[in-house]
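Risk register update: the risk of archive-format incompatibility is retired. Evidence:
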Amino acid sequence: MRELKIGIAFCILSLFSVTGFAEQIRANVAEAILTPPLEIGYTLGGYGARISKPAAGVHDNIKAKALVVEKDNKKYAIITLDILGLPPNVKPQVIERLNKEDWTEENIMFLPSHSHTSLEMFALNDKNIFGMPQIGIFQPELLEFVVQTLTDLIILADKDLQPVKIGTNRKQIEGMNRNRRGEPFIDKYLTVTRIDHFDGKPMAAMVNWTGHPTIMDDDDMYVSGGWPGYLQRELEAWIGEDVVAMYFNGAEGDQSVVSRSSAGSHYEKAENYGREMAIKALGVYNNIKTSEN
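Archived output:
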């Protein structure tokens, strides 16, 4: 499981290091607000008990972020999203709208955070014909919004690619996640990849930490990126210099977070957890040495 998770995104970056010094790695990053207008009447994903009730408001905006990397005429896009998940129809529709030969199924990767206070995955599935509120009802307007936002985001990130240096490190973290089934396996690795401009100015920080974003429950009806959203905002504030923090969950399985806050709302507890993980991610980030190869 660990090997699968590490490979899901970082293998793309490591591909560039085995080709020698033929060409400098170039990259760019962009972000977009993925929060749809409330007028669409979309539901939040993750809990069937919500019965497809529309979101009551926006607590904090959800975002999508894209990193485009290129070397030796090979190009990849890694897109992280503060969203429960994506059905299989979204990616092909984004590629169709990009309408460029250099974007295919193989070199675009979407990595949702699995937030349970973000968009319902089945509401984006145009094959969802069941009309069952417990699993989400397909909303064409919502699908159109998400597909167009992701298309525009990739186009934006694919402009003005700059030479970069990249490095990755990881650290074991104790007491911040657990196996919700009581099994002994717990993935305690916090992994951070740092992408800097060639002059050392930060460009992006990719964070992988495994745990279901379920601090909020089915009674929480305000849009939020959950603790991964807080983690990203806090990390960007700590690093500064317009860095873009990107989070992905990987193969989370039965890994759940351990919230150590005993008081406050679910949103406050998620904020506290996200802030604590951001500080730990910053410690890993600050000890990464980036390299052009």
